Amino acid sequence: MKRLGALTLAAVLAIGGLTACRGGDTENDSSSSGGPKVDVGITKEPCPKSEHKDRGCIYLGIISDLTVGPFKALAVPITEAQKAFWKRVNTQGGIGGYDVDAETYVRDNKYNPQTHNEVYQEIKGKVLALAQSLGSPTTAAILGDMKANNVLAAPAAWTSAYAFEDNILESGANYCIESMNAVDYANETFKPKTVMAVHLAGDYGDDAAAGAKIAAEKLGLKFIDVKTDSGTDKQAGAVTAIVTQKPDLVIVTAGPADVAAIVGGSAQRGFTGKFIGTSPTWNPGLLQSPAAPALKALYLQSSPWKTFSTDSPGHKAMREALGSSITPNDGYTSGWVWSYPLLAALKKAQADGDLTRAGLVKAAKSLTKVDYEGMLPDGAGNYAGGTDGIFRQSLIYNPAAGNGTTDVPLVKDYFTGPTAKDYKLDKPCYEKL
Asked: Where in the sequence is the signal peptide annotated (predicted)?
């Protein structure tokens, strides 16, 4: 599965003016039928592809890495799963007399913050919320505008900064907590003396590296920080740092192709220590790469939730909605999981009689739990709890030991390590790196 984020963040662009939705079709008061208050991104007219002509339409935007960025192999299935998720919602009755459209306003960010902002400006006056905003640095490029205009988003990312944002509905353990748990797991199993974090710069890599640093320092282990750039041809420095400084454990946070270059290159030069990759570092296609033998020997994967073939009601619903023609990929799993909190917020806002943007943000902030249909444990989705309510459990897999898709051996089920259990999140972890 993938956690996403980490090109150099371009300066956040100026906030654009909020435009009317669909030429003024959106209502600004309670509907004539006595329904909830609405404003941007909701129309009386049915969704373009809806079979339910008696329902209005809630438009959600998706901004993802669909063509040329480092996470496109994950982003495409993430997006397809989210389309399928909202189609299922419509089949089950929609939201208070409305279907949900998560297809009309899908845009490609090319994993570039400036492009992300540009396409956001194109669609923001036409959608109620964002069903997906992929990437930590890319989402950061629009966050100021989102807050100014009460735009709620489900991020395809896990930076710890989201715990401080009312306009973000994150799911699962953040990068920082995930890495704390990974180091604690390693400390219990193979007793490393030296921990190195090899990572991309920015909210993604720095957040994970900070978690590794916090855990290593608490455990009295030596910590080494190594930043790298995205690109398989840019990993020589990271490989050299690994083979010369010989850490016992490397927490690696980059793109999948980068990780293949790092793990494969290090093994080729004689490194025999352990790697644990944060969740966005893995793609099953790596098992067809030249690095596959090294990954099988040295690599484990931390994860915020269980894999595609897991037996839970949510996983089963996802597989049924997607059909049998797809190739299993945990991008689908992530896209499906990320959709539950926004569904819960929409239902709460509708029940409160206020489906305006402000009403949706208020509803989201009031959630004390989310029904993930078993895809996350009880206790996930406590947005009302603020930083104290963040989810702190993660898992460890050995994906290279299986086939990377339907057979992904679980090493350690949901757990919270001692570092994460006691940690007080008082600011984004990456600020402590």
From this structure: 1-20
pLDDT band at 6 (very low <50, low <70, confident <90, very high): very low
CA 216 centroid distance within chain = 25
Domain segments of the chain: what residues? 22-173+310-389, 175-303+392-432
CA distances (Å), origin 421, targets 161, 184, 411: 18, 11, 20
Check for a shared fold between 22-173+310-389 and 175-303+392-432.
Answer: yes
pLDDT (0 to 100) of residue 403:
86
Token pair of 268 as six digits:
């080729």
CATH superfamily of 175-303+392-432: Response regulator (3.40.50.2300)
**pTM of this prediction?**
0.91
Q: Per-residue pLDDT tens for 29-46?
A: 444 457 899 999 999 999
Output b/e per residue, 73-89; b: 16+ Cβ within 10 A: bbbbbbbbbbbbbbbbb
What is the pLDDT at residue 337?
A: 99
The pLDDT tens digits for 133-183 are: 999 999 999 999 999 999 999 999 999 999 999 999 999 999 999 999 999
Residue 140 makes CB contacts below 8 A (sequence gap 6+) with 9, 12, 113, 161, 203
| Opening angle at CA 143, ends 131 and 199, nearest 5 | 90
Q: What would the CATH number be for the domain defined by 22-173+310-389?
A: 3.40.50.2300
Give, rounded to a whole angstrom, the gap between the first and last alpha carbons of the chain.
25
